[in-house]
Fold:
Amino acid sequence: MDRTVIAYVIYLVVSIGLTVWVARTLSSNGRIFLSDVLHGNEKLADAVNHLLVVGFYLVNLGFVALYLSDDETITDTRGVFEALSTKLGVVLLVLGVMHLGNVYVLNRIRRRGVMEREQVPPVPPQGWAAPPAPQAGA
Structure:
């Protein structure tokens, strides 16, 4: 079997495995976070979490597929390691950026929810005060 094909197979197996592992980690921890942000609305938290995971898979697996091809033929074992280290390093960086992007979005959602909770007065209004009477000569 050609060394280039071997490098492709290893790249795909490792990249897809890493993508699945990161997505599952984000999904399990993100669900708890979303449930808190969405005030315990479990159905909505599950739906948002599922949509985020699907988007994560689409972007990362699409990138893995696009980054698969290489212009040069691998002729020796050293070339296999060099090609894999470059490709997997870039995939890991993209996974990291996607992870940070998801955390950023979740944090923005959480902040918005905290700000909305702070805008609600802790005690309902008990009455109203009449506006001040106009002063003479003003």
